[in-house]
Amino acid sequence: MLTFLFVLITLTVPVLGSNSSQATATQSYDMEPELYMSTMEAAAPSPSVEVSPTAGICPQDNGKYRKIADATFLITCNKVIDRSWTDDTQETFAACIDACAKKPECQTVDYTPATKSCGYSKQNRRAELEPVGGAITHNARRATPPPPDEVKPKPIEDTTIKPDDKPKDDTCKPKPLPRPYTTTAKCPGDNGLVFTTSDGSTYKLLCSHHTDWVDTIGDRSTEPSWEACMEKCSKAPNCGSVDIGVVPKNAGNCVLFNKNTKESPKEDPECNTAVLVDPPPVEGIGAEDMPNVLCTTKCPYADGMSYASSYGETFRMDCYKRHGTKVIQATNANSFQDCMELCASMIPCHSVDYQERTKKCYLGSHHGKPTIDAVSFASAHSMGCAGACSSGACCGGNPDARKGVSVIPPEPDTSCNNQGLLYAIYTNINVPTSDLAGSKAWDAAFYKTQTPYAKGQTTAVGTVSDSIYENKPQVEDKIVVNHKGYLFAQQEGQYTFTAPVADDLLIIWVGPKAYSGWTRANANVDQVFQGWGDPDKEFKITLAAGSYTPIRIIWTNRIGPGSMAVKIVAPDGTVILDKDTKENPYFVTNGCKEGVAPGFAGWGGEP
Questions:
Q1: Nearest in space to 252 (alpha carbons), one of 280, 214, 226, 278
Q2: C-alpha–C-alpha distance, residues 80 and 1, integer Å
Q3: Rounded Cα–Cα distance for residues 9 and 31 (Å)
Q4: Where is the Apple domain (predicted)?
Q5: Helix, coil or strand: residue 541
């Protein structure tokens, strides 16, 4: 005979219409308490769930439900959502809740006892904000308490092995990935987790969020599920995120957004959002060594074969797989072959995951084969130098087989606190009387020997005269700002430097003369303000991938407020600097290794 053991959680619910101190109903459940939270709750404020028509006094009723006719409100003391669409005054918190219950559109209230202010909101959101100004304010929102008939007690499983039992073989069953992955896309339980589409693309799930309507791709469509909407995104070359409607008026509405959209998702109870992310690592994945075979890099034919890099390192290739281990660096590469070449050029790199659709190359230190199925990926791991091609005769004895490989180098070495450009601020003291003529005659070299009153390091270039990189100028209408450092070329080709309208003067030097010997006469760009219709001035220069090029940018202002901005565009059209750039990873003050991008002379003593 089997003995059953029940794990009980007691919920005390006052019986409506009875003496609340004596008349209670008790139910027992075998689930963890957090499973009873409403879909928006992260934790219960009290150990039991209590529903009462008299609840409405803080702090004693924190976490309780107030029952008014057909509506119930969850009470959260001393927290607010601060999203009122209208307000009035009510004598008590309970009266405020009851007033909301009578308004069909009202979902939430914030109540301040000191002023008796009752703020009504149409948004049903969990109260997480601290009251503004220190005033005690409480919140209540429409919420359904957990129904007691949802859960039934479960006995402990009998694990006694019976003679006729046969062991089950589940070795062929697919095993779901551990967190942060999920095989479903359900809110709120999967909020913040990562969902993998059929081609291996990974999306972070954000419940009750939407993306601002900019950079949409195509027309909206109606999809049967959030998963289907993400699958649609994975088939669109430039798709980076999706919105799916979740309320009756927009249920199933699927909108795709460009992967270059800079807007961050906003909270919205009517939508769910999924954002394309780099695949998170999966801990504990092992690997085995594989044999060495030569020599194609195109999937599916490269599966199980080897690639001998131009650096002498051999890689074992696996199609439709990825490693899932920690990524050293994520960058771009034009092909799977380029991705492996990039790995071979870096000593810590031993593995790559490459997605052809996005051209993303994930560099890792894993020594073994990949274990995660991903049909849009190709992966490779290092086999070392044993068996690599010798004397440059790679791939069937052709010494030119590796020529023309376009490897996109990584970002510059910033291990020595060198990211950004150096800047110095001076008072503009060598200005002739005439504004326009004064700007044309202004002597830049004069400031080589001047001592600045403020200096620092910035990862972006662009400012206004009343606050220069968080520095207050001594005289707002007499300013000189001198920037210097290096631009790291991530790719080979022609870079374009543009000076838009400058108020009052913007000068740019690119190349060795930016390091020393700079004057107005040898500047590459010299933009003098003559009016707001001034055309942009440009300078183009071809740079080698991985090179460091000295640059210098000087801006001056006089007579009233002013501003400046610079635009730099890479060969492939990527804007790597403009007025909206917050941080540019390709600027460095100097190199971290001897002989690479030597440091500039100090301010006040420049050649």
A1: 226
A2: 55
A3: 7
A4: 319-385
A5: strand
Paired tokens of 346: 């870096």
C-alpha to C-alpha distance for 98 and 83, rounded to whole angstroms:
18
**Single-letter amino acid code for the residue at 330:** A
Which pLDDT does position 413 carry in this prediction? 85
pLDDT at 601 over 50: yes
What is the average per-residue pLDDT within 53-81? 89
Amino acid at 313: E
Q: 157 burial class (0-12, 13-18, 19+ CB within 10 angstroms)?
A: exposed
DSSP 254-308: EEEEETT--PPPEE-TTEEEEEEEPPPP-TT---------B---STTTTTT-EEE
* Torsional sign, CA 323, 327, 330, 335: negative
Delimit the domains of the chain by residue range. 9-142, 181-277, 280-396, 421-588
User: In angstroms, rounded to a whole number, what is the distance separating the alpha carbons of residues 308 and 191?
Assistant: 43
Expressed in angstroms, the distance from the first to the final Cα of the chain is 96
Tens of pLDDT, residues 189-201: 899 999 999 999 9
| Domains 181-277 and 280-396 in one fold | yes
Return the closest-CA partner of residue 308 out of 296, 320, 318, 298. Answer: 296
- Residue 383: its pLDDT value, please? 87
CA 409, 356, 272: angle at the middle one, nearest 5? Answer: 105
The DSSP letter of residue 593 is S
> What's the pTM value of the predicted model, to 2 decimals?
0.39
SS3 call for 380: strand
Q: What are the pLDDT digits (tens) for 273-300?
A: 999 999 988 765 544 444 434 457 888 8
3-class DSSP string for 68-110: ECCEEEEEECCCECCCCCEEEECCCHHHHHHHHHCCCCCCEEE
Q: According to the model, what pLDDT value does residue 95 have?
A: 94
Q: For the structural domain made of 421-588, what CATH number should be given?
A: 2.60.120.1560
Q: How many CB atoms lie within 10 A of CB 529?
A: 18
Q: Which of 37, 88, 65, 341 lies closest to 191, judged by CA?
A: 37
- How far apart (Å, rounded) are the C-alpha atoms in residues 371 and 363? 16
Closest C-alpha to 191, from 176, 210, 208: 208
Q: Buried b / exposed e across 224-249, counting CB within 10 Å, b at 16+?
A: eebbbbbbbbbebeebbbbbbbbeee
Q: What's phi and psi for 242, nearest 5 deg?
A: -135, 150
CA Rg, the chain, in Å? Answer: 32
Fold of the domain built from segment(s) 181-277: Hepatocyte Growth Factor (3.50.4)
Q: Which fold has domain 280-396?
A: Hepatocyte Growth Factor (3.50.4)
